[in-house]
Write a structure and sequence with these properties.
- The chain has a domain of about 100 residues: Helix Hairpins (Orthogonal Bundle).
- Helix 1 runs antiparallel to helix 2.
- Helix content is about 95%, strand content about 0%.
- The longest helix is centred in the C-terminal third of the chain and has 91 residues.
- It is mainly alpha-helical.
């Protein structure tokens, strides 16, 4: 007689959406972390290249090499700026995915609460039904036992 509540299918769908959002959040988090690592690599490379330029300048450098260093550093700066934008966009994607995952998780928790209330209500109803049957049984047996006892007294 165990009927499944009508929201069970909706709960399953919400769980699937939550799990899909969790996977999406994980993938976007990895992409963001990789973008951060690329940015850190570029910044490190720029620092190293600037050190090389300083060292070359202190030892004397011709104009062509100086311009080449400066041009390459300008390209690195552009690459760093672009990668900074990529990181910022990846951060926004992670934040959006986290918000969507949180929403789906809350939906599942709502269905779980609804399910818990249903089970608690069903248990109370069953308990009341059992108590009523016990009371009825006790009342019948008590009524049957009294006449028998009174017949022996006369």
């Amino acid at each position: 007689m165990s009927r499944t509540p009508p929201w069970d299918r909706l709960k399953e769908l919400a769980e699937k959406k939550r799990d899909a959002q969790a996977q999406r959040l994980g993938a976007l988090t990895r992409e963001r972390d990789e973008a951060r690592q690329r940015l850190a690599m570029l910044v490190t490379y720029r620092t190293e290249y600037q050190s090389r330029l300083s060292e070359a300048s202190s030892q004397g450098i011709d104009l062509t090499r100086l311009r080449n260093y400066q041009a390459f550093l300008a390209q690195l700066e552009r690459a760093i700026a672009q990668q900074t934008d990529v990181v910022a966009q990846a951060e926004r994607h992670v934040d959006d995915a986290r918000a969507q995952w949180t929403h789906e998780r809350q939906r599942v928790e709502s269905f779980n609460a609804l399910d818990e209330r249903h089970h608690t209500s069903a248990a109370r109803s069953e308990q009341r039904r059992a108590q009523k049957l016990t009371d009825e049984w006790a009342a019948r047996n008590g009524a049957v036992a009294r006449p028998a006892a009174s017949d022996t007294d006369h």
